TrEMBL record:
Residues 23-50 form the HTH cro/C1-type domain. It comes from Franzmannia pantelleriensis. It comes from the Bacteria. GO terms for molecular function: DNA binding. This is Helix-turn-helix. It holds the Pfam family HTH_3.
Amino acid sequence: MRTRHVTLSPKASLSLRLFAGLIEEGRLRKGWTRDELAERVGVGVVTIRQVAKGSPKVAIGTYFEAAALVGVSLFTDDLDSLKREHGSQWERLTLLPKRVRRQPEGPMDDDF
């Protein structure tokens, strides 16, 4: 199997490493080994090592599950607040167009 190469912007790369560091800190505060965290997340220890390094090759869901398990606050710790925020975001999303079409080159004729 060929390894895929993922290129991130410097800001995204730094943010991912910060997130990884918060997960690693949470794991250590809980006193869990990487093996224990891997078992709880449902992945192999190699994947958890990649999470600790901030690898962009690891699925975002794996990061979120590890973060939730070690107590890293994702958006809010209150499930009801998270549900309300999700509902509000979904309502805003439904007001936007379903797809974006490329605008034609040149000046737009919007004189009705």
